[in-house]
Amino acid sequence: MASFHKLSVKNINRETSKAISISFNVPENLKDTFAFQAGQYITLKTEIDGHEVRRDYSLCVSPKSGELKVAIKEVQDGTFSAYANTTLKVGDTLEVAPPKGRFIFEPNDSKTKNIAAFAAGSGITPVLSIIKCALEEEVNSKIILVYGNKTTDDTMFLNELLELQHAYKERFTIQFVFSQRDEEDAIFGRIEKSTVNYVIKNEHKDVLIDAYYLCGPEAMIHTVKDVLTDHNTEASRIHYELFKAAKPTEVESTTESVEKGTTKITVTVDDETTTFDMSQKQTILEASLDEDLDAPYSCQGGICSSCLARITEGEASMRQNNILTESEVAEGLILTCQAHPTTPTITVDFDDV
């Protein structure tokens, strides 16, 4: 189970008018704990107005950089993002959980690869980590980035990306896409079907892409995936992570055999097992937290995998799943923030993942 460590803020840099990057001081005895793979995220925890708040933010540096650094874009009604952008100061302390996540890039310098990445807005954060890692550790691999924003002023890491492009001009190309300003050498509009076709089938038509990395809003992810699938791209070559998912729909009741809509649930977390009754209208995570169990969680929106657990008895239905594969679901893995029990009894193990 992930534990939190108190880390002080080393540096805060203003990336755009509504986004900052934050780096942390990591003590020597925690260096191994906070070692990470390109594309992973960390969970930040603090108390704001008397309430505990947890949020996941992707690391935006390469694993060999020696840094632990994330970027946070302020979003409308965003409690933590507003606090970070307006109140957090160098020297302040946050609780930080070790890196996690399945959207990862594993470098292999014995292979030469062509990589294409599609990112929109703050979706650039894990993609930037992947790009840096690939450029540093796969000395012959080439990377194509398609990056969508409203304008250049809204573009996170714009100067850093341009510097990388200059430093690796033979290996790294960028196609900017701006939806609210027509810029030279950029595509005007959004990342849509025509954009993907232009980049893959026109501008880089002679390049065989070995792996695709996509990060951004759900609509963009589906658009790019659908185009790639139409071009017979194997699913194993497409990797993606959402930073914002569509609002989930309510789960329809499939529990006619369960009286009064309740389930007797047995939960194991940190080697402690607890049994209690819960309403099937609640998610398994909500019910566990109501019982004061120290169940892991962060986004509570089905985007991260912090609340992952395994069903060892019984069944549950997830209202949405943006992470787990069909085979993982078949093995009993669930996102507990999205899972509602559908049997009279269920056993859930947070430790067996």
What is the arithmetic mean of pLDDT?
Answer: 91
Architecture of the largest domain in CATH?
Answer: 3-Layer(aba) Sandwich
> Could you name the ranges where pLDDT drops below 50 across 5 or more consecutive residues?
249-259
Name the overall outline: globular
Strand content: 25-35%
Query: Which percent bin holds the helix content?
Result: 10-25%
CATH class of the largest domain: Alpha Beta
Number of helical elements: 7
> What structural class do the secondary elements suggest?
alpha/beta
- The string of secondary-structure elements, in order, is EEEEEHEEHEHEEHEHEEEHEEHEEE
Strand order across the largest sheet: 4-3-6-1-2-5
Distance between the termini: 10 Å
Q: CATH topology of the largest domain, which one? A: Rossmann fold
Number of domains as seen in the coordinates: 3
Q: What's the CATH H-level superfamily name of the largest domain?
A: Nucleotide-binding domain of ferredoxin-NADP reductase (FNR) module
